[in-house]
Known about the structure:
The complex is a heterodimer.
Chain A: H1 3-30, H2 38-56, H3 59-83, H4 88-107, H5 132-137, H6 141-159, H7 161-171, H8 173-178, H9 183-209, H10 221-231, H11 236-258, H12 265-284, H13 287-293
Chain B: E1 2-6, H1 12-36, H2 41-49, H3 56-81, H4 89-106, H5 115-141, H6 145-165, H7 199-217, H8 219-229, H9 231-236, H10 241-268, H11 279-289, H12 294-318, H13 324-339, H14 341-344, E2 345-349
Antiparallel strand pairs in B: 1-2
GO cellular component, one term (chain B): plasma membrane
Transmembrane segments (chain B): 20-37, 57-79, 91-108, 114-137, 146-165, 197-216, 243-265, 271-290, 327-347
Protein name (chain B): ABC transporter permease
Amino acid sequence: MDAYPLLFASTLTAGTVLALAALGLLINEKSGVVNLGAEGMMLCAAIAGFATVVHTGSDTLGFLAGMAAGAVLAAAFGWLVIWLNANQYATGLALTLFGAGFSAFVGINYVQAQMPPRPRFNWLGLGDLPVIGPALMRQHPLVYFGIALTVFLIWMLYRTRVGLVLRAVGESPESAHALGYPVRRIRMIAVVAGGALCGLAGGFLSIIYTPLWVEGMVAGKGWIALALTTFGTWRPARVLLGAYLFGGVTMLQFYLQSQGSPIPSQLLTALPYLATVVVLALISRNPTWIRVNMPASLGKPFHPGS
Amino acid sequence: MLRLELRPTPSRTWAWASPLLALAITVLLGVLLFSLLGKDPVKGLMVFFWEPIKSRYALGELGVKATPLLLIALGLAVCFRSNIWNIGAEGQYVIGAIFAGGVALLAGKETGRWIVVAVLLAGVVGGMLWAGIVALLRDRFNAGEILVSLMLVYVAIQVLNYMVFGPWKDPMGYNFPQTRTFEAVARIPRLMTGSRVNIGALIALAGAALLWLYLFRTRAGYALQVGGVAPAAARYAGFSSRAALWTALLLSGATAGLAGALEVAGPVGQLTPYIPVGYGFAAIIVAFVGRLHPLGMVLAAILMSMFYIGGELAQSRLGLPKSLTDVFQGLLLFSLMACDTLVNYRVRRSGALKGAR
């Protein structure tokens, strides 16, 4: 019986990796920019964070290093697509291919590296409560941060001037420009913020979720995070929920494998990816619904005065 | 301050010069990286740009790696020209390899030579099937092809793992997850002795010629391009964007699947979990660096193949990780994206006279 609270707890952890990245991409996409480099940013952040923790022993520094790695790569991407008007899809792809190679290259010496022991959490002693304790109260602070971030984004996007401007830039950059808002600067800030959150997700993955470094360990989570923005129809709460749902699918897959299920393990491993395909197909089935929810200028470049 | 000014028409000169400039930047960054790592940059460059072409054997190896890259890129070029973002060629390649491997495993010692044709066709069918899923989901359910094709890469790799760890595992293979090696009759013929280069290289070159004919000498090729650039205009002219979607995806699935078949029935000779080596992703770079043009892609495939061989040599000679290959490939695409700005824009100093040209 103890398995279920633990399964739930690990679902939240796995979901948080996806949620942090997907919420970052959401900010990014609300401004009208789609960054297919999420996978590359997460990989570089994962090794940056892991290496930092191995050398300094500080998780906080590790998370910051991950965020910095994500932000720097996002800035390079942003410079290309926002100021030089490069194709967003191709440039994002370049970022992913580069990130995959670069993280493997610099990470080769860390494959066997050992992490200092992880702290165990027990918030206010509530972790000792039956069922709820192990499920909810023994989580890493970043799990709660993911929820807080969602609440913050809902407030920011729909209740503040900053959010209004950000959405205006994503819906109609021409109008935002005419009103005197610096469209490209706003997009750049959104892209860098998105990169930093993808970086935080990558760091969380290699420092907390699976505390080790393996080449290509992000294993498509960046792409699933991208799918989650569509799945959540660009709304923070739905994105968070979707992330937990996919975290659950991942965990279910591990759980079934450990239970020695008769289903071939390879099929179970493929489950999250198959689920992404099925869910994408179901969500996208109604084109008008997608069009209504999607930021209208998503993927389109904007250059004032031409 | 510099600023960009939109050109009235894209520059033809820069369309060709931009990949060369991107290559120059990548080489420059390479020199910087070698120096930072305390390696002799000249030695480093030799490993990447001289060793792969200095002997007959080396040239053969160059051909072995350039073949799948070119084949896959040819199909991808059709996709990208019609604005369909199939980035899951790696998955189509893997499924092609599995299908081809399945047929090759059926061959016994007394099977006729015709089996080779069946092996290659099976690869084509496998690739088309995998790309067909993407086309179907985009056509019927409006699901974005970028994410679907990519997710199917991960699924394809698991299918391969299932086959080699499960039903197709060689019972005499000391429990290694691999099939038995294919019979000689099921293997594709080599072009010459003393080199591993095989008829795949000729097929790829023929494919490049066919693509040139298709794109620039047929109405169907023209319709495909119009459909990608301006769907509304294409509809008006009676060209179907649905037809373009299916054609492009099935074609690119076919070439990726064929590349997979040629790889397992050629240099590899059996199915192993190490079939997916990233050719499907590297071919995306080949397509872009080659400007989606058949001749350009031949050159780009050779260049990327040099990066592969250079990476392997850097590992054995310089003690650097093999992933150096992926770093340079990624850097090349990244710099290309930056340099491509010059195709559509001209760099001007702001404040310069407006009328000055």
